[in-house]
Amino acid sequence: MAVERKAYWLRHLILIIIVIIVLFPIAWLVNTSIRRDEAAFSPNLFSSRVTFQHYKNLLFPQSSVGRLVIDIQSAVYQTGDYSDKSEEEITGIVQNYIDKYDELTEKSVKISESINSELENLRKAIDNNIYPNMIESINIIREKDIELLNERISQLDIDTNSPYFIAAVGKTLLSYDNWNTDTFKYLLSEFGSVGKEIFNKIENFDNSLNKLKKNETELFEKVSKMEFDEKNDVLKSISNTPLYYDPFDYTEWRKIEWLKIINKFLKDIDDEELQVIKSNFYDSFKEARDNFEIVNQSIEELNTEVQKLIENSYTDKTKNYLDAVVSLEDINSSLENLYKSLNSDREARKEIIDGLSVADPVIAPETEKLEILKNTTEKSLTKNYPVLDSVVEPDKIFNSIQNQNHSINNMLQNINALEITKTISILSELEKIRDLYDWFLENARNISSISENSDIKNTLKILDASYSNLSRILPSFENTIDDLVSIESKIGNYLIDIERLEKQKADYEKTIEENEYYALNEIDNLSKAEELVNILVVKNIAKNEFSDSVTVNNYIKEISPLIESFTEEKPKKRYNDYLWYSNAEEAYTNGIEGSVILKSTIDNMNTYMSSLKESVYDYIKLKFLKSPVSIDEFTELQNEFNTGYQLFNAKYQRASRLISDMLDFPPSYSTEISGSLKSMDKNLFDVVQIWKTKQRTYFFFTRWLLNSVIVALSVAIISVLTAALAAYPFSRLRFSGRRQGLLVLLLIQMFPSVMFMIAIYALLQFLGMYIPSLGLNSLGGLIFAYSGGIAFNIYLIKGYYDTIPNSLEESAMIDGCTRFQAFIKVVAPLARPILAVVAILTFMNIFNEFVMARVFLQDITKWTYAVGLWQFSGEFQTEWGPFCSAALIGAIPMVLFFLILQDYIVGGLTQGSVKG
Amino acid sequence: MSRKKIISLIIAIVILGVLNSMAIISISLIFSDGKTALGITMVILVVLIDLVVLNPKYYAFRYMIPAMILLLILTFYPMYYTFEVAFSNYGTGHLFTRQQTVQKLLTEYFFVPENSQEFDFYIYDNYTDYKPSDNFIILLKRKSDEKLFLANKPEAMAWDSEGDISLAKGVMAPLEKDKATLKDQTFIADYDSESGNIVSFESNNKNYIYFYSPQDQSTKANAPFFYSEIRGKWLKNVEYTGDNYKLRLNANTLFTTFITSDNLYGLINEIAEEGGRVVQKNKIYNKKTDYILPEEEGYFIDKDENGQNFKVAGYIDYVGFKNFIQMFTDPKITGPFFQIFIWTFIWAGLSVLFTFAIGLALALVLNDRNLKGKKIYRTLLIIPWAVPAFISALVWRYGLFNETYGVINRFIIQGIFGGEPIKWLGDAFWAKIAVLIMNTWLGFPYMMTVSLGALQSIPSDLYEAASIDGAKPRQRFQKITFPLLLVTLAPLLVGSFAYNFNNFVGIYLLTQGGPAIAGSSTVAGSTDILISYTYKLAFEGRGQDFGFASAISILIFLIVVGISYFNFKLSGSFEEVNR
Question: More exposed terminus of chain A, fewer Cβ within 10 Å: N or C?
Fold first, then answer.
């Protein structure tokens, strides 16, 4: 018995694990549909911050301020959905929208007030509780950190006298802009004698600065005790002194006009003590300024010093390596550009060469003609060989030909230098023409001398025709060839550059390869030394217990990269206690700032809105009187909304993000405000929901659901009625063709119906021309198209009729019923269960069908749920909240139907059907 | 015959008459629209209905009239249509009937007539960010009298198979008083005061600056951009209309000018002898060469200047078994087709195997009278089946398998195992794994449910007898449970195979068949099964091929009928039909 029991436990365990795995996608779907953060970007798989807002948005699409601003405008201007509304309707709609707007803004004011009061709670908690706790907790971590750092120092094993170390210190020094910090001074103290020197200079500066401050106070006190007219001006000038000893900006030190102002008023006052104090103050200011300059100068010298040090710490091999790496990067980017230009010019060249071929039909026939002409002329010449008479001038056509030939020759010479020439067939035609022309020109005088001959006359005529034919196209041909040549030369240049750069690239790559091992070793040493320096800097910051958040912040900024590099732990987790505190501070500031912006945005928008309220109905009237006016308030309102919403949304989103982090990663100390954080989180989310411009698709979702229900219900009814009727004779009557009929019913449902769509598409298109409500892009058409799938239903219902005993009908018919009446009154009521099942199954199938619906329905308002969800999934690819809620809204009723009917479905399926 | 009966008969005949006359009107409309097959279907339908209503012999069929209407129009006609298309070349390049194609030939092809007008042209470009853009207008100068015209950037009307523009249309208008209006947009010319040339045009705050002209050497620097971005893309096949002109680029000047052009093709009637009968056929002839175009394989064929034949335009034509033959012979199609064909069987087979293995294992665990909470487990495990498949598929696709954001990659692969993210939908192998995982998840509850039913139907006395003979649990399963299960479930397994064979939603909604198979000339993807391939061939991608898609769907039909025949033999389930 005990063994059996144990086995059951194991069984349950296995089953539970399987159920968890199997239902994981469903659980994820449900959770994602109700979580408030953006699941696609959240590091958490599940979230406990839930909201039903996505469902609300889909099922009861509430307008938002952003949406209303747009909608009021479109309603007044009667664009889009409002174009065919009457005046009363428009007035009503606008009235409605304006009320809604008022309601929403009031609501958001209320919520933002409660956010503010919660923020003040947070403020109190930070000051009284969180801050001291945080300092305490961080000090404990500090001790652990120091241990860890010491361990790492011993691991690194770097000699603090080695050149690497000194170079690393210098390098780190240069990374700091501000030389008047503890860290900088600490580093200087580690930087040998040069460092000491600068350190002393900074000390000098600090001393003189202190003196200056002391003198300043003294002077201030002295002056405030005295009485004279310009006293207040003088006091103001003195108290402004700190503005001028900005340690980072040298130019400020030079603005000593304010000293003159002080002097102007004080110099005539006869008070010796005052004069002494005044001159002390002046002197100390000048001294401090001089010291400042001295420090700055030596810092500049330090730069060159450090550069030298770093260079010296590397051998030549490493330097070459580093140079090569930098140059290689340059070359690669130049090469990329070159290849881009090369490709675009090659495109252009291709287009030109393709274009050249259109000259073929002009040039090719001329070649042929001239060749034949040459043969005949040759014959004529040999027949009556001319006696050369020097008087005979060549016919004038030869001049023209000579010119033309000259240009052809030029062109050919131009282009023959190019590699690409071989691929242009038309050029060989031109070469032929040139050769033929050459022959004619050689024999020009001979031909001309026998020009009385009729053959030759003819020849000259044909030559003339050829010439004019060619001269129509040759000039543009020449131009194009010029373009080709210039592009080709550009391509050539690119290729030369590319070759050169590729060679250089190879050289550099070789250098890199040769020196890599050695160089990387050296670089590694330097980087180790740098790490040591960083550790020492951190240790220096942490040398005393922390007492203020600025030091802690500084410390964590410096130590985080170190901790991450040599421990597995994420700094975010290790220093969560501090981060939580700083998040709280930031959330507080962002929240307060957001509320302020929200308030002023609402105020500004309300001014425009109230002036709009006064005039909008008159505008509408004018519009209907056909004299439309454009209304400036809309633009103003829209602008105000855009800027205001963007600003406070950014602040609120940031605050919300921080608060969600704070909720997800609570600190180790107690805070006692998580309840307030949660409600703040919800409020922030609600305000943004009220304001954001919602996508148009949201407002169609219920329409899609309704469409789906209409279509699925109609098809279910049609299909049950026809199938119930058609199944009856198959069950009760014996007629010829019964067996074949049943076979056909079984066969046709095996035909893949995907291809039916082409025929049905054309059919609906045709129907739509005469009956639009049954055409494409109409629910009626879709219902009609779906109604064809009744074959299997007939089969299913027939099976059920078979189980109803025959005797019932027979007795009804004996009582005087016709067969049809017997069917209606006896069989059909008895078959009610199967009819209901078939109806529901059909309903489910049609509800889920999307292939046909997607092809047949184009209007967004005509879509069914399935098509809409498909569109939704693309539109909200990473906005999983809306998508998952939309999916569940459709899925839940189907799942319930299914679970209730599961026995019927299984029964139906075991008879040979399959779920679609 | 009683009076009542006569009256009802008269009413029936009147109704029938009205319906018939309506049917005749609609049939004539259908025939006039050129839908012969649909018209014939309607005729058959009307005749059948009349026959059934008027002849008492066919009493049984009267019940079927509504079903008959729906089935004939929405099932038999589309089936017939699919067969018809399967033997035709219907698809891209052959989208229109011969009549429609002839119409296109008559209106859309051009040549340069004898008394043509030539135009020089000047491109004006609207620079964006100081770079030339492909937003341009063209100034045209009529060579005969130097009159100026302006033409806009054309709109692309048609594309060839490589995605290049094969027809672009634009409008031109004379430039009058430095202004020209093109499609409600007015362009105002701006002259250079010294040379008197137009340096730019302005319209809607956009400035079009003189950019290039083949007649102007000074703009040579802009030639490469002109060739590659403007002429190569937009002007190659442009047609400008306006002011009684129809202009295209002039081939005789190497496209450096525009020239008026005229329709290239005309129609003549030819009397030919066909099968001993004299028939009149309309033929297309080339107005320029007077060549009558022969027709081959559904194409009109013309000769170019070199006497080479080329295809001008195609139309839907009967091609016999070509679509079926090319499935097995055309190397570009056969490779991917066989890959899909084999994968369809693997997919259906593995889907059945995995779902059955998991479903049976769970059924065995749950089939225990003493197990508490059996009903709850069963209900929970059945949920994946209950969720509509298309919703599940979308959830898996966007939420779970997404490469960057998906839960599986982010939390399981990277989070738990620390591995590299898997390209679930981008890599052929992993996409196949992904569809199988999802389909197993969708399908095992069905197998579990039917296995449970089958297990319960095994008589318990068999087990009692076995335990008396001392059989171990393993032996009991091997010798009794499994063989008996198979007898009951075999038809269902075959049915499930047939279902998955055509499981369009399971593939298409998750991967859309992708990733694409490299080197295929069709839209084939690595996870495509025959049915999704058919769908994509017909409704997606640039080159639609309804003929080939129909041929495949007929092949699918034959395979499924084969499987089902085998199944009926196995289960004897059609016996009841003979009762």
Answer: N
Question: Between chains, do A752 and B441 touch, taking CB under 8 Å as contact?
Answer: no
Spell out which residues of chain A touch residue B392, defining contact as CB-CB under 8 Å.
25
B125 neighbors B135 (Cβ within 8 angstroms) = yes
A480 and B231 in contact by Cβ < 8 A? no
Q: Do B224 and A870 touch (CB under 8 A)?
A: no
Q: Which two tokens stand for residue B261?
A: 């052009």
Measuring CA to CA, which residue among B437, B428, B537, B552 is closest to residue B502?
A: B552
Number of H helices, E strands in chain B: 19, 20
CA distance B405 to chain A (A): 6
Give the pLDDT of chain B (579 residues) as one tens digit per residue.
Answer: 578 888 888 888 888 899 899 999 989 988 887 788 889 999 999 999 888 888 888 888 889 999 999 999 998 999 998 888 889 888 877 878 787 788 778 766 777 777 788 888 999 988 877 778 888 999 988 888 888 888 888 888 877 656 678 778 888 888 888 888 888 888 888 888 777 788 888 888 888 888 888 888 888 878 888 888 888 888 878 888 887 888 888 877 778 888 888 778 888 887 777 667 777 778 888 877 888 888 887 888 888 766 778 788 888 888 888 888 888 887 777 888 888 999 999 999 999 999 999 999 999 888 887 888 888 898 899 899 889 888 899 889 888 888 888 888 888 888 788 778 888 888 889 999 999 999 999 999 989 988 888 888 888 888 888 888 888 888 888 888 888 888 778 878 888 888 898 888 889 888 888 788 876 767 788 899 988 888 888 887 666 788 888 888 888 889 888 888 887 777 665 554 444
User: For residues B293 and B102, what is the distance between their CA atoms, to the nearest angstrom?
Assistant: 11
Tell me the DSSP string of A751-783.
Answer: S-GGGHHHHHHHHHHHHHHH-GGGSTTSHHHHH
Q: Which residue of B has its CA nearest to A739?
A: B577
Contact call for B386 and A890, based on CB within 8 A: no
Distances (CA, A) of A93 to A60, A63, A77, A830: 18, 13, 12, 52
Question: Which one of A35, A755, A761, A878 makes the best mutation probe of the B interface by having the most chain B beta carbons within 10 Å?
Answer: A755
Residue among B285, B312, B314, B321 at smallest CA distance from B298: B314
**Mutation for B interface: A754, A841, A892, most B CBs within 10 A:** A754
User: What residues of chain B lie within 8 A of the CB of A480, using their CB?
Assistant: 214, 254, 256
Model's pTM, two decimal places? Answer: 0.64
> Rounded to the nearest 5 degrees, what angle is found at the Cα of A132, between the Cα atoms of A130 and A135?
105
Tell me the count of A-B CB pairs closer than 8 A: 299
Chain B residues whose CB is inside 8 A of the A912 CB are 491, 495, 567, 571, 573
Is residue A531 within 8 A of residue A169, CB to CB? The reply is no
Search chain A and give the residue with CA nearest B257.
Answer: A476
Chain B nearest-CA distance from A760, in A, is 7
Q: Phi/psi class of residue B175: alpha, beta or left (left: φ > 0; alpha: ψ in -120 to 50)?
A: beta
Is omega for the bond preceding B515 within 30 degrees of 0, making it cis?
yes
Q: For residues B393 and A115, what is the distance between their CA atoms, to the nearest angstrom?
A: 41
Q: Give the tokens for residue A721.
A: 């009625």
Phi/psi at B118 (5° precision): -110, 150
SS3 category, B418: coil
Contact A384, A446 (CB under 8 A): no
First to last CA, chain A: 46
Contact B118, B258 (CB under 8 A): yes
Task: Report how far residue B417's alpha carbon sits from residue A244's, in angstroms, rounded to the nearest whole number.
Answer: 59
- Among the partner residues B67, B223, B549, nearest to A755 by beta-carbon distance: B549
